[in-house]
Specification:
Distance between the termini: 42 Å
Subcellular location: Cytoplasm
Bound molecules: S-adenosylmethionine
Radius of gyration: 22 Å
Domain tRNA methyltransferase TRMD/TRM10-type: 1-234
Function: Specifically methylates guanosine-37 in various tRNAs.
Strand order of the largest sheet: 2-1-6-5-7
Helix content: 25-40%
CATH topology of the largest domain: Alpha/beta knot
InterPro entries: Alpha/beta_knot_MTases, tRNA_m1G_MeTrfase_C_sf, tRNA_m1G_MeTrfase_TrmD, tRNA_m1G_MTases_N, tRNA_MeTrfase_TRMD/TRM10
GO biological process, one term: methylation
Strand content: 5-15%
Length: 248
């Protein structure tokens, strides 16, 4: 998968060199290209913002550098390949595991993390007509800029790419994984030692009985979802619950 990120803070994306994403890059599974938006400015001060039409506080990112930057990145694609545009914005569609799965199936993502009060709307309209576009919010709060949102989205997408996680099965039972976990969060997990500060582990986990362990994990997922995310329980598809689930 290819990822292009256009930003005024390229150094903010340095965490993409470490851990899972960094290793995926080193193995050639991810081709990440970070671009400085100011490279497409032409004045002495490399200006990327201006005052908002209609007045009010804050500044708005100018369309000209964004237009030149996006044209240049799009033109660098092989043949007639086109990126999928991902625009981080608090006014976007909520970022979910289902959207992470959808994005992980795209061969090329182009991110436009903004600063100030965001990007002149005409840029989004212009490229929304030429490319597949997702305006994405990572939560109901306002960040100072979209770079942290790009890190979040990239990490969630990268771990779904074939071969990126050591164990291909390991995201199958994650919280929100499509299927039986779609509207559930995962239950608690334990490792050695069997006793720590007087606290043991649930006996079933050392029973060696796979069926009972799977049942216990599902019960705990349902309990924890009901406790911490009643909003998810309410919208849960009744079809995902079996008879035993309903007894809980
Ligand atoms: N005035 C905008 C509003 O109220 O919707 C907020 C602009 S915010 C200060 C600057 C940039 O940070 C946004 O354009 C976006 O790129 C990014 N951003 C802030 N919060 C975000 C969120 N919850 N999800 C995704 N991106 C966000």
């Amino acid at each position: 998968m290819r990822l292009d990120i256009v930003t005024i803070f390229p150094e903010y994306l340095e965490p993409l060199n470490v851990s899972l994403v960094g290793k995926a890059r080193a193995r050639g599974q991810l081709d990440v290209r970070v671009h400085d938006l100011r490279a497409w400015t032409h004045d002495r001060h490399n200006t990327v913002d201006d005052t908002p039409y209609g007045g009010g506080p804050g500044m708005v990112m100018k369309p000209d550098p964004w237009g030149e930057a996006l044209d240049s990145v799009i033109a660098s694609g092989e043949g007639d390949t086109r990126p999928t545009l991902v625009v981080p914005t608090p006014s976007g569609r909520p970022f979910t595991q289902a959207l992470a799965v959808e994005l992980s199936e795209c061969p090329w993502l182009l991110f436009t993390p903004a600063r100030y009060e965001g990007i002149d709307r005409r840029v989004i309209e212009e490229y929304g007509e030429r490319l597949d576009i997702h305006e994405v919010s990572i939560g109901d709060y306002v960040l100072a800029g979209g770079e942290a949102a790009v890190l979040v989205i990239t990490e969630a997408v990268a771990r779904l790419l074939p071969g990126v996680l050591g164990n291909a099965e390991s995201h199958r039972d994650d919280s929100f994984a499509p299927g039986r976990m779609a509207d559930l969060v995962e239950g608690p997990v334990y490792t050695k030692p069997p006793e720590w500060r007087g606290r043991g582990i649930p006996d079933v986990l050392v029973s060696g009985h796979h069926g009972r362990i799977a049942r216990w994990r599902r019960d705990e997922a349902i309990r924890r979802t009901a406790l911490n995310r009643p909003d998810l329980m309410e919208r849960c598809d009744p079809e995902v619950f079996d008879g035993r689930d309903r007894e809980l």
